[in-house]
Amino acid sequence: MAKLDSRFALGLDGSCYPDCVVQGEKYRFTVLTSRMLRMEYAEDGVFEDRPTQVVWNRKFDHPQFQVNDQPDCLEIDTEYFHLVYDKKEFGPNHLYIDVKYNFTNYGGRWYYGRTDYGDPLREHNLKGTTRTLDRCDGEWFVGANILEKMRTNGTTTNREDGDVDLGMGLCDTSGRTFFEDGKSLIIDEEGWVHPRKKGCIDTYFFGYGRDYFGAIHDFYQLSGAAPLLPKYVLGNWWSRYWKYTEESYMALLTKFEELDIPFSVVVMDMDWHLVDIPEKYGKGWTGYTWNKDFFPDPERFLNWLHEHNYRITLNLHPADGVRAFEEQYPEMAKALGVDPDSGFPVRFDFTNKEFVEAYFKYLHHPEEKKGVDFWWMDWQQGNVSAVEGMDPLWMLNHYHHYDLRRNGKRAVMLSRYSGLGSHRYPMGFSGDTHVTWNALQYQPYFTATAANVGYTWWSHDIGGHMNGIKDNELYIRWLQFGVLSPINRLHSNSKPFCGKEPWRYPKPYDEIAADVLRLRHRLMPYIYTMNYQCHTDMVPILVPAYYYYPMDPDSYRYRNEYFFGSELLVQPMVHPTDKETGYTTEPTWLPPGIWTDVYEGAVYHGGEHGDLRQISRPIEQQGILAKAGAIIPMAAHTQGSNSIENPETLELSVFPGGDNEYELYEDAGDGFAYEQGQYVKTAMKLTWTPKKASFTLHPAGDFTVLPEARRYVLHFRGFRNLAVSQINASEAFAKQYDEKTRTLTLTLEGTDVKRDISVMLEGELLPQDENLSERVFEFLDRVQGSVVRKDEVMKCFRQASGKEEIASGLMGMDLPESWRAVLMEMVMR
Predict the structure, then answer these.
(1) Considering 196, 220, 282, 609, which has the largest number of Cβ atoms within 10 A of its Cβ?
(2) What is the pLDDT of residue 372?
(3) Residue 161 scores a pLDDT above 70
(4) Is 406 exposed, middle or buried (CB count within 10 Å of its CB: 0-12, 13-18, 19+)?
């Protein structure tokens, strides 16, 4: 068999430290950490040290453990778990592990292979993710019978076809979980994969308690870190399954530019290639030949896109191989031993090294040379191949990733999840999404839960792809979630009424949509820093709330609540607005401490143990709360620009309530020069007391990646209008205060990027809500409802002596619950 090119050789060492091994005739245990254990059983006593599809590294810091080895019983004890094994074939009757520190009643003992415990049986696993959400309406799988109803009715809540299976995750409230690696393929020194011998058991036990960050961090160490993504993928993506031409696509993007709506990635769905092909060749899903009627000069078009600062991905359905109508057919046929004159198709076969090399050489490298930046792998043909256990999807994801790195670019692709370890091949395409509220209501939970298997870069069809309904509010709420999700890719199908262009929606929805997309572009410094933290610190960029508050039962209750990076707590608005108030209300859990609304600077108090609240927002706002002391870096908006360069004007939003440190990371945005130190880290620190706050900024690193001078705009949101008692920066600075958003803004012009900055604020820092009655009036004025009721509410606010009396009065009034929810939130923050 031919040898793979050296670009696929990974240089992996799958061996472990010998002193971490406890071995018998047919078993081998490897204590990887004090909380992670590898367990192998083989009748022939031969064990595997090579890397697998899932596991790439087995050398961790040497853990401390004790062994009690008796003739018929083996015990291994670490700080966090205790194993008991009778030296027979692994099974629940022969091996168990006790997790220490009692995370659940009676659930701390794991019997080998069991995913449940107790009587009646219970599960505490927090789930993982799934290969695709194709044919799913939210969490419900939609069979053909239901699909027809959806085309008519727009939605379904029928569960008869079963819920989406998210599988087991690596986080469990019982403190323990496991995964089986015995069927994972072996990776050899060349970078090729091979099936393992049958009958071997290779299980990894995780006993991390409720340290979910620790579990995922060590899984990344075991499996390989998530790569650092290029910056351009973190902006807005435009995608549509539509018969675009060169002229129509350029006209669309020009209109986005004229309307000041920034995009950084352009997706070309399958109509870039020939689709209407002779019937003898079958369907036109697979294709590699540009449709010259639509794109007469592909290279010219790709150049135009690059000149306008877009990156390009092409959609692929490669399952039908290369057929005789393709321009690339003669070369592919010759390379694979097919007579080009025969017309026989070149079969897709990623189990064949010769096919893999020809596939890249003749089908992909020429297009990349023309200007294609990466590929959208739309594989829908299952996991069966000519070699047992060799999933074509995993093969495509893995080898595409390492092929794209050959020219010094950071590799990305858009594809489906192919099992544990898929975090190494970002980004995930979750499938054809139905345009329903069900689908939106499921996506936040689905996205956050994927962190439990380390899969943090999901990309959804934002706005929905197919069927369902057109709903202005649904469109906006989906965009708002997309902006605060890992990848913001708008998408829709070829039906004429499914477009996602903002101008296809009436006011104010068109303007809100444009503002939301601008916000995503401005958030790049924050998201790119999260990207770096994921790569180096091995922290998923989006996690459920229970990662930060694992011992609080309420943190698990509202499953859509998540942290977007380290600074922001998000409660997406995923239900229609109330027709009277114009607000959406979502129940949520407010964690302990101080939290600040990012829009209006209103400060919330979660108390010592957190609080169950209702969060209400109008259509133009999302539920976003900044933690105490949060620091959010953003690029200033530049009219008509979609630049992703490190900004000349950097805006920093600083929030009250506690000490905090944040480190902004900036580099060239692509390539691997950062590995040689070409980056800047700017350490920021807020030191907080109720009557004094200091903010400092200290940049360090290779300043060639930054502009020579910067304009800093510091927004102290949720602060009073205070005098600046001390500032160490450029001599010229401007100060202003916005009462509506409770924001003190300092603008520092022309500051040397190498210079430190410090600001001191003194006085009563937290604002009092002197304008509460005014805010209540503004709310009631927009409410569609009884004027008499409005007068009664305003009377309550004017006559009550304090917030407790106001709250008591509101609870005693005959009010619609939608009114009461908004008013009580205003009062009891």
Answers:
(1) 220
(2) 98
(3) no
(4) middle
d(CA 644, CA 624): 24
Interatomic CA distance for residues 259 and 502, integer angstroms: 10
Inform me whether the pLDDT recorded for 151 exceeds 90.
no
Tokens of residue 193, six digits = 């994969």
User: What average pLDDT score do residues 25-54 get?
Assistant: 98
Structure tokens belonging to residue 128: 């993982």
| Residue 521 CA: distances (Å) to CA of 323, 447, 532 | 41, 21, 17
pLDDT in tens, 111-140: 998 887 665 666 789 999 999 999 889 998
Rounded to the nearest angstrom, the gap between the alpha carbon of residue 640 and the centroid of all alpha carbons in its chain is 27
pLDDT in tens, 698-712: 999 999 999 999 999
Question: 588: closest CA among 621, 554, 620, 626?
Answer: 554
pLDDT at 716 over 80: yes
Distance in angstroms (rounded) separating the CA atoms of residues 663 and 528: 12
Instruction: Kindly report the three-state secondary structure assignment for every residue of 17-66.
Output: CHHHEEECCCEEEEEEECCEEEEEECCCCCCCCCCECCCCCCCCCCCCCE
- The CATH number fitting domain 265-429, selected from 3.40.50.2000, 3.30.1320.10, 3.20.20.80, 1.10.3720.10: 3.20.20.80
Q: Which helix (H) or strand (E) holds 141?
A: strand 140-141
Under 8 Å between Cβ of 795 and 776: no
- Quickly tell me which residue has 């604020």 as its tokens: 761
The proportion of the chain whose per-residue pLDDT surpasses 90, expressed as a percent, equals: 86
Q: Among 388, 380, 368, 241, which Cα is nearest to 313's?
A: 368
Q: Among 118-127, 191-200, 446-455, 506-515, where is mean pLDDT lowest?
A: 118-127
Distance CA 74, CA 64 (A): 17
Rounded CA-CA distance 318/742 in Å is 54
φ and ψ at residue 236, rounded to 5 degrees: -90, 140
Helix H, strand E, coil C: the string for 452-514 is HHCCCCEECCECCCECCCCCHHHHHHHHHHHHCCCEEEECCCCCCCCCCCHHHCCCCHHHHHH
> Rounded to whole angstroms, what are the CA distances from 590 to 276, 577, 637, 825?
55, 21, 31, 12
Rg (CA), the chain: 28
Angular region, 138: left φ>0, alpha ψ -120 to 50, beta rest: left
Q: Among 559, 344, 324, which residue's Cα sits nearest to residue 452?
A: 559
3-state helix, strand, coil in the chain (%, to 5): 25, 25, 45
Domain definitions of the chain by residue range: 6-130+166-223, 265-429, 645-762, 770-829
**Which two tokens mark 51?**
């890397």
The letter for the amino acid at 65 is F
3-state helix/strand/coil string of 178-246: EEECCCCCEECCCCCEECCCCCCEEEEEECCCCCHHHHHHHHHHHHCCCCCCCHHHHCEEECCCCCCCH
For residue 386, the model assigns a pLDDT of 87
What one-letter code names the amino acid at 133? L
Q: What DSSP letter does each residue of 508-563 carry, written as one string?
A: THHHHHHHHHHHHHHTHHHHHHHHHHHHHT---SEEEGGGTSTT-GGGGTSTT-EE
Q: What's the CA gap between 285 and 300, in Å, rounded?
A: 25
**Is pLDDT of 233 > 90?**
yes
Q: Provide the mean pLDDT of the chain.
A: 94
Separation between Cα atoms, residue 489 and residue 234, nearest integer Å: 10
Environment class of 677 (CB within 10 Å of its CB; exposed 0-12, middle 13-18, buried 19+): exposed
- The pLDDT of residue 380 is 84
Query: Same CATH fold, 645-762 and 265-429?
Result: no
Q: Which residues contact 482 (CB under 8 A, 6 or more apart)?
A: 460, 462, 463, 488, 489, 490, 520
DSSP string, 670-692: SSSGGGGT--EEEEEEEEEETTE
Least confident window among 120-129, 220-229, 384-393: 120-129
